[in-house]
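Risk register update: the risk that structure generation would not scale has been downgraded. Supporting records follow, first protein first.
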Amino acid sequence: MKTLLKLFAAGLLSVGLANATPHSIDKGHSDVGFSVKHLMITNVKGKFSDYDAKIDFDYKNKTFNALEATIKATSINTGIEKRDNHLRSDDFFAADKFPEITFKMKSYKADGDEGVMTGDLTMRGVTKEVKLEVDDIATVKDFKGNNRVGFTLEGEVNRMDYGLKWNKALEFGGVAVSENVKLIIEVSAVEK
């Protein structure tokens, strides 16, 4: 009986993976960004320019079978060099000690052209489970005849959970940098 159950499970897995196709990110049409409240009044936006991901997308069922991403912490860019250097320092990412930020999908729950992706996000050596809203999933055949998928990932993390604890109290109340950071990731990926 156990052998029969193992064969059945293996059969289901192989059917699910048969529709999955590996993709590579088109960095010219993708963006790994974030937004954080500064001085309690404005949002500072930034992005990472050095990243890569392994994506297995199922076109037939419009679902993700796998997504693993790696971001180089030193590639942070907010448009101000002094601030970027501070973000790379031990006060924030400690990029010399922890050069990579990683995400590994654990599950995906589809709902039409959107869904929820759950996975492990690791920064500064700390791993926490996060949920990312997946929106605007679209597929197309590009000018060269390649299959492409595009989608948006959005979520929020508390930077304190990952050891990014630097802050300053403001004399009128509040703090210099919010604890909550919004993640906004736009992806265009090409079938390999």
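Supporting record for the second protein:
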Amino acid sequence: MRALVTSSRNTFALDIIRKLGSAGHYVVAADTYAGAIGSHSKYLSAHVVTASPRFETDRFIADVRRIVTEHEIDTIIPTFEEVFYLAARINDLPEGVRLFAGGFDKLAQLHDKGSFQRLVERAGVPIPETVVVSDEDELHAAIARFPQFFARAVFSRGGVGLLTNTGPLAGKMDVADCHPTADQPWLVQPFTDGPMICTYSIIVDGRVTAQCTYSAPEQWAHSTGITFLAEDSTKTLEYTQRLIDELDPTFTGQLSFDFVNHDGELYAIECNPRPTNGVILLETAEFLQALHGVAPAPVVVEPGVERQIRLAVLADAFAERISHLGTSLHDLLHVHDIGHGWHDSMAMMWGPAALLHGAKLAHGHREELLKAMSEDIVWNGEQIEGMTPADAAALLDVHAQRI
């Protein structure tokens, strides 16, 4: 395989690069800035800087075309929301290259939290009651329905921009700062108490070929996981396959779902139509077997496997309250880092470059840093420059499915 891995700033992109490169595959990493951690792995054959898929879509597609041609790439593996721009412009990519992702219409249906809720209902997977609101009056009326509520934009990610009156994030965002519109509506649900359970799946031709179910015992600012512990996949594997069967029995790509474990019942919350850190818990041979679709049965990560982003845990140990320090120190001493066994330490040393990149995009607003770190590679439901009329129509259909 000659693979291009895009959005190499992500820890899970670095892991995919390591898995592919260590197995002898030719791997090129790409991102919109040179300091992306995955672009400095010793397992790379090359790394390239591209234009932003969000802000300079035509240039981004031209950059990808050039990389594919110059490096004779046969497979593109997206790791973040650049997948939408690649899928919408797939006809502009060189002939013969494979985009390891679903079609734009299916990805959009998964990413839009409103249409995703309807998909979940049709698949018969448990889901909290959901209200979609498109203006501020509707938002106020919806949150008044639930004594304990949880609200977020239909296009949101990474635990950023959450409105709730319950739990550790209560009051972190004010309702006056929430402005749903018809184009950018919000979801309101009753607060579903319980631990978050996440999944990472590889799907080939409509069949789940790998499944990792995991929790995040340690999180940065109650949002992004920094430690990852494998959990039982029995129920999540069943639910994931049900969702794929309902979505598209020919789907191929990487998907990640979030559930809440409420008194033993899993409730589907959202889908990230891309990889997440669950991939780190897969062994290299398991990942490659699943990617090629040759496993006779799904590869499933056994419960108890655990990894951490050591630099983030170390920072968290001193950023959080003193009572939290013991847990962080235990993790630092007893849990393997995501780089364990790779002997590729220089890659993670570029981690501060991601903060600098985010700070530049945040224009100095510290509270916006986490959001800004991915601002140039996200997709929030807009029409994409150069997309086909069929995909533009599909996008309107996805919006209609929210109701």
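The first helix runs from residue 11 to 22. On this basis the risk owner (M.S.) recommends closing the item.
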